[in-house]
Amino acid sequence: MSGVHHFDALIIGAGLAGSTAAILLARAGWTVALIEKQAFPRRKVCGECIAASNLPLLDELGIGAAFAAAAGPDLRLVELLHKDRCVRAQLPPATGQRHLWGRALGRETLDTLLRDQARKAGARVLQPCRVHRIEGEAGAWQCHVQGSNQSELQILSASVVIDAHGSWEALHVEQGQARKARSGADLFAFKAHFSGRTLEPGVLPVLALDGGYGGIVVADKGNTTLACCIRRDRLDRLRAAAPGQKAGAVVESWLKQENAGVAAALAAATREGPWLSVGPLAPGIRLSDNDTIFRIGNAAGEAHPIIGEGMSMALQSAWMLCTLLLAADRQTHWQSRIAREYDRQWRRQFTARMRLAAGFAHLAMHPITSACLMALAGLWPGLLTLGARRGGKLSSAAQIPEIPLTTGVSP
């Protein structure tokens, strides 16, 4: 690829949000470049649970059958685990659709399914390919990229740029902004897969930990995914007490000592591959009504992962934005109008979920409040069911009939 290549839209990041947007726009006749810096399949720090409200979206995107064939069992029960105590409750089934329960699937599989579907829809997939800089303004962007086997930068131009690259590093246009000062309250996320598990299928345990929180789930291939977030100050103390050990090994030992449910679930299990880690997390809203580059997924806003809504927000925010883009009349300042309306809709749909996640996370991380939470849940297990309802497990911000899904062209 040489010279300047024009597209209707450049999408940076081929995860759930980016690939979803690429599929929807390409099927509607837009020329789309989907840019991803990592090779697939790749593991990613993620709880891997996807709520039932998103499964109709996967059907419409064309990967529903593949997801159903590969994903773990229906998630029908939720548990709150603290020390040696456990409270169990029913997860609420979705209503008005054929998918009643959420399931879990590794991101190495799910992201690849969506990326391949974007290519099938007609999107130009550039992978692995790194964005070096973005110049211009809404309607006239130039993106300088470089593939892993290229010696020179290539230039892509587009009227629309969509940021779906996640939250772990800034885009070129954001670099140089002040970074948050290091804090003991910073959260780092860890994840590992285990085989030979003893965790009951269909149960979703949520972990309240001294200095963190986490979750366990049986995902694809019968493997157990264990993911957690831990405060920096807690991690620093643990590592100081175990000099020379890797952070993942320290976290695994801490989880087993801290929580009897984790110890039981992993008693006969074998870890498959290394621990993955990322951070510090930066929960909060990044979206603005005057954005000139559109943001979806974690680039728009990141919830504390304790309620497992990150994948929902990625899929649904991409769908929401594409609905607006495809309905636009493209008159003067049309992208500014969409940015304002998208910001309004996004906040209406997701702000309450983010606040619930933040409140639950802070209660779960501290010994006194987590003990109180556990006592309350013991008296009223339905609190966990209600929390799942309020956390967005049954509702979707995406309106399927509003997206024209036509047959894509061949790549």
Keywords:
FAD/NAD(P)-binding domain; 18 strands; alpha/beta; disordered C terminus; 11 helices; seven-stranded mixed sheet; 411 residues
In short:
With 411 residues, the chain is an alpha/beta fold.
Task: Provide an overview of this structure.
- The chain is α/β, with parallel strands linked by helices and 411 residues long.
- It has one domain: FAD/NAD(P)-binding domain, CATH 3.50.50.
- Helix content is 34%, strand content 26%.
- It is built from 11 helices and 18 strands.
- It has helices at residues 16-27, 55-61, 64-70, 107-121, 232-241, 247-258, 260-265, 310-327, 334-365, 367-379, 382-390, and strands spanning 4-12, 32-35, 49-50, 77-82, 85-90, 103-104, 124-126, 129-137, 140-147, 154-163, 187-195, 203-209, 212-218, 224-231, 270-278, 284-285, 294-295, 301-302.
- The strands form 4 sheets. Strands 1, 2, 7, 8, 9, 10 and 17 form a 7-stranded mixed beta sheet that branches. The chain has a 7-stranded mixed beta sheet with strand order 5-4-12-13-14-11-15, with helices on both faces.
- A hairpin with a 2-residue loop joins β4 (77-82) and β5.
- α1 (16-27) packs parallel to α4 (107-121), α1 packs parallel to α8 and α8 (310-327) runs antiparallel to α9.
- The radius of gyration is 21 Å and the shape is globular.
- The two termini are 15 Å apart.
- The relative contact order is 0.18.
